């Protein structure tokens, strides 16, 4: 059975598409979300190692996990509305890899620039995976890190409109769904959505979040 979702009225405007095919998406097991210590143990066993050097048209983001009140959180941001690319999209801290940097270096540097968390407070757990951003074609990789306590953030207002704290358990709610989209520019694609009023997590960030959760099942 398919379910239609009305995504109008949220802060972020979604692009126009030629055809939408809504889908139910219920294969994630709610028992997979365990205590923060159990989640860390699973990720240490299942994440990939960190590559040393990269090149080309690449970027890195940091999926920063930390415990709060017995639940594992992941830190995300809402991009500033005046940015030329992806305004007001919910994303992980990150950006382009500079010459000579590793993926981890880039993710940690961008995290400090965007939300003020210094690399000395973050323990890196491993590489989640890689993909490409539709439209720009830029490749990106996800680095998973961990803070033992909730980090203190200092938002860079030039890039970030809000710092968001997302419970991993949020995705095991009826507000998680996906759709097939058809667009003349990129053809068919499967898009994941996590509704977090007044925001929507979707696109490359949602794909990274789904990949992280798959490791916990």
UniProtKB/TrEMBL annotation:
PROSITE patterns: NUDIX (PS51462), NUDIX_BOX (PS00893). Its cofactor is Mg(2+); Mn(2+). Keywords: Hydrolase, Magnesium, Manganese, Metal-binding. Residues 56-191 form the Nudix hydrolase domain. It comes from the Bacteria. The keyword Metal-binding applies. The keyword Phosphoprotein does not apply. GO terms for molecular function: coenzyme A diphosphatase activity; metal ion binding. Belongs to the Nudix hydrolase family. This is Putative nudix hydrolase NudL. It comes from Ferrimicrobium acidiphilum DSM 19497. The lineage of its organism: Bacteria, Bacillati, Actinomycetota, Acidimicrobiia, Acidimicrobiales. The gene is nudL.
């Amino acid at each position: 059975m398919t379910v239609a979702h009305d995504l109008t009225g949220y802060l972020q405007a979604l692009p126009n598409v030629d055809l939408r095919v809504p889908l139910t998406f219920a294969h994630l097991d709610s028992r997979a979300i365990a205590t923060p210590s159990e989640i860390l143990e699973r990720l240490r066993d299942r994440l990939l190692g960190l590559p040393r050097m990269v090149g080309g048209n690449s970027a890195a983001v940091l999926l920063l996990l930390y415990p709060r009140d017995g639940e594992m959180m992941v830190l995300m941001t809402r991009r500033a509305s005046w940015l030329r690319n992806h305004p007001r999209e919910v994303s992980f801290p990150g950006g382009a890899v500079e010459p000579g940097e590793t993926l981890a270096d880039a993710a940690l540097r961008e995290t400090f620039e965007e939300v003020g968390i210094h690399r000395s407070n973050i323990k890196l757990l491993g590489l989640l995976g890689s993909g490409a951003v539709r439209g720009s074609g830029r490749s990106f990789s996800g680095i998973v890190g961990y803070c033992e306590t909730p980090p203190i953030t200092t938002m860079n207002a030039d890039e970030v409109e809000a710092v968001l704290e997302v419970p991993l358990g949020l995705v095991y709610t009826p507000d998680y769904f996906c759709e097939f989209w058809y667009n003349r520019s990129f053809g068919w694609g499967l898009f994941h959505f996590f509704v977090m009023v007044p925001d929507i997590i979707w696109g490359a960030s949602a794909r990274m979040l789904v990949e992280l959760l798959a490791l916990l099942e």
